[in-house]
Write a structure and sequence with these properties.
The structure is a homodimer.
Chain A (H helix, E strand, L loop, with lengths): L1 H17 L4 E4 L2 H8 L7 E4 L4 E5 L17 E4 L7 H12 L4 E4 L6 H10 L4 E4 L3 H7 L3 H22 L8 H14 L4 E2 L4 E4 L20 E6 L1 E3 L2 E2 L2 E6 L6 H19 L7 H14 L11 E3 L6 E5 L12 E4 L2 E4 L3 E4 L2 E4 L9 E2 L11
Parallel strand pairs in A: 1-5, 3-4, 5-6
Antiparallel strand pairs in A: 1-2, 2-3, 7-10, 8-9, 9-12, 10-11, 13-14, 15-18, 16-17, 18-19
Helix pairs in contact in A: 3-4, 6-7, 8-9
Amino acid sequence: MSEVYAARRTRLRDHCQAGGSQSALISRPANVRYLAGTDPHGAVLLLGKTEDVLVCADPPDRRPTEGRLDEALRIHPLPGAGGDAAVAAAGLAAAQGGGDSLAVEEHHLTVARHRAIRSVAPRLRLTDLGGAVEQLRIVKDEEEISCLRIGAEIADQALGELLESILVGRTERHLALELERRLIDHGADGPAFPTSVATGPNSGRRAHRPTDRRVEEGDFLSVCLGATYRGYRCEIGRTFVIGTSPADWQIELYDLVFAAQRAGRESLVPGAAYRDVDRAARQVLDSAGCTEGLAPLTGHGVGLEIDEDPQLAPAAMGKLDACVPVTVEPGVHFPGRGGVRINDTLVVRPEADGGPELLTITTKELLAL
Amino acid sequence: MSEVYAARRTRLRDHCQAGGSQSALISRPANVRYLAGTDPHGAVLLLGKTEDVLVCADPPDRRPTEGRLDEALRIHPLPGAGGDAAVAAAGLAAAQGGGDSLAVEEHHLTVARHRAIRSVAPRLRLTDLGGAVEQLRIVKDEEEISCLRIGAEIADQALGELLESILVGRTERHLALELERRLIDHGADGPAFPTSVATGPNSGRRAHRPTDRRVEEGDFLSVCLGATYRGYRCEIGRTFVIGTSPADWQIELYDLVFAAQRAGRESLVPGAAYRDVDRAARQVLDSAGCTEGLAPLTGHGVGLEIDEDPQLAPAAMGKLDACVPVTVEPGVHFPGRGGVRINDTLVVRPEADGGPELLTITTKELLAL
């Protein structure tokens, strides 16, 4: 595995040198993990002129859920509790070659840390690395996709088991907790994000936080969950109807959101513009008059974070590549009445390879539970 | 409740004006909640020259777990997904009175946001608010302490129920999940931090992340958990021994950590230096030769965050006031063998009021389970 991390660091180093920086300081945790294999609390990674160093207070743990440290990296321990790893790393960078420039993640580093770095290494010219590591992270290798696939299987299993149990009378919060327990039972590191269970008037709300409302006959029930597996996070969302037979409005609304979600999925081809994927799903809802309260995005990348680049949104710039995992998650919510949300994680693949690979395979038929 | 938030904002405004700033931009979520009553995702609070405004993408929810919005505050909605609340708030500040200065939380604001603020409001002089809100938050009012007290009762209940169940053969991860479920059952918003369950060689490790190791006869079992209640977070930690009778080394080690923890608790009086509380506990362990691998701190403040000011550590500056809730949590861990950690949340009270108020009342006798 170590070669993977070293290769990623080489790509980033090439990028920095093309931009005129000899070294880079990586502080965003998911970026540290991507490049070092692990991200102990508070750790930063120095891509140095002469040596790469992981600076952290606690030596990294070797358990698989915390990642596997690239053994080629030198570990620089921080003494005591008050030390700032970013400041210590800047000191190391200055020692490696005074007068050079250091690229930092200005979108993550605080003003106070930036100032502390300037004062400990006044001769280093600080530049902005921007989202360079986030850009590298967009296209996944097969090892990463394999972690996402296992995570999706775990989420499918947890959801499948829940559907076999009695739901009426149970609260959103208890259902969410049970799903999270089942994720762990099936081998997840943990939930990929706070599990969302929404019933009745709450159904269809994006990122709804579970309440004490109980499931009732006739409700829509929307569930959104995901597993983290070896650091990689996926997402699945489904909406069900409670009771023997859905009402007409429920069937119509479900069919509409299903059609929008399918349109989004089918537009996932290498080379498709992010905004076109969004538009494909969005215009199905628009044309049915569901324009109020639509979410600002139809989907997003997933990986070491649950909400990564790209954003599938009307103003997003860029095009999909093969091996980019994204969610497709349109939804409609009518205040006071509820709604529908359907969410899959898929990997963009060329048509010659069979088109988009669906990771979350739970049925999207409207189940009456 | 609204008066409480308005009064807090007035105190902060006085502080800012004494420092020469007419307005302040609060971005750290716990600080926003402290001053506005709620902190929707991504929200910032502008303490303006003429008006206070909460800038957020999603209008705040009114559920009690999310806090109660101060109704006197104006809400300024952010259009779309790409907007940055801090930048929008700086624009409002500039519109309220151009040419003035705006104090920002440099320890929270990123370099990129700081730069975006400068470009949207180039005539505003940006100054550093520092940890002014964190300082205001140290001393709690009785309403806040009441939330901590209820949270502690919930944690005590969850722990008490776990102790009545069979423990041998269950994994750390499952015990942690069960504790978290019980916290919710008893009315917590959620866990105050990831519940830690550590068995055998893991026992006594600070912030140990639960593994698949199963509880065995003869183990030490250390548990650390806390409830969030109306946003306030408390912490309790206990160590037990599994089996009918503890070994001699276990009894000795337990007595030592208990003595250290008691020394820390007994030194919690208004006016005591933070470092002296730390020293009181630490020197008990030191004098027994347990100097290796001691945590850098003996305790810390709790409130809207689980790890707040003050830090009870050797180099900490400052003195305790009445109505400051802190943890006292010394521990010893021998690699490969395990250890003991005992942790209470207490509120500093004057001796005339009965001395420190213990919120976490589960027994600290060494229980053999």
